[in-house]
Amino acid sequence: MDEIDVQILKLLKTNARMRVKTISSIVMLSEPSVKNRISKMIESGVIDGFHVDVNYEKLGYMIGFFMKITEIKMAISEFEKRIQEFPDFQEYYAVTGTEKFIIKGHTKDIASLNAVILKMERMAEFNTSIVLHKMKLDD
After folding, report:
1. What angle do CA 72, 80, 107 make, to 5 degrees?
2. d(Cα 123, Cα 135) in Å, to the nearest integer?
3. pTM for this structure?
4. pLDDT digit string (tens) for 85-105?
5. Which distant-in-sequence residues (6+ apart) come within 8 Å of 8 by Cβ?
6. Which residues does the UniProt record annotate as the domain HTH asnC-type (predicted)?
7. CA 79-122-94 angle, 5° bins
8. Which ranges constitute the DSSP H helices of the chain?
9. Using CA of residue 6, residue 22, residue 18, residue 20, what is the dihedral sign?
């Protein structure tokens, strides 16, 4: 990877649907060269996919939260299977540090979050933080 590849990645992170023609004019390379570079990054696994960034508030999910799991009350495989049944969970991370896992989620309101918490209490010990503000940082 060189500086042009890094520049292409930054552009695609800003807008994964950006046209190759637009990217080629910004990085000052031909369209076939840019297309080839993107293909190579996909094949090598540097680009792992093109994703949609969902605005959960627009869908009525007004509360963003993180659950920091310190202990689970069952086998990890069972826990991982059961949390997939929670529609309010979007991401799950196994981490180092005080917590063992962190779950990112969104719910419609506080009552919905409370329902999630009550279900999770049977499965794990955890601390929940509600998101007050989100800011996306550029790599």
Report:
1. 90
2. 31
3. 0.78
4. 999 999 999 999 999 999 999
5. 23, 27, 34, 37, 38, 41
6. 1-62
7. 35
8. 3-14, 20-27, 31-44, 76-83, 110-120
9. negative
